[in-house]
């Protein structure tokens, strides 16, 4: 088999660089964990996914975890953790989830996702979390397209 024309004979094709995305919310127990789990599920191996909180809570939100499990997205091994400032500056993109989260990222590009908040409409519990999950899932899909990632088949 002949190597592609842009790769000199005998040399390996260049390995594409995997982007790093850091999802941040205040407690790192709900929305940022949801975004990370959904991104890992949609683009396994195509992106390095991290999540953290500016004031991490004690545990993951059980309703968030349950809503993710309904669609096969996993938070296995995850726990709330603080933002590592060096990692935030090394990431290719930081996504802030919510209006209340603030983070200095230096030159790292930042997106802010102000997600749907169904509780403002009186929707609570599992129904609330499903709506939040679905909003975040749509944003993750759009971000994957923006980054040129291919979703898992």
From TrEMBL:
The keyword Nuclease does not apply. Pfam families: LMWPc. Keywords: Arsenical resistance. InterPro entries: Ptyr_pPase, Ptyr_pPase_sf. Residues 19-146 form the Phosphotyrosine protein phosphatase I domain. The keyword Lipid metabolism does not apply. This is Arsenate reductase.
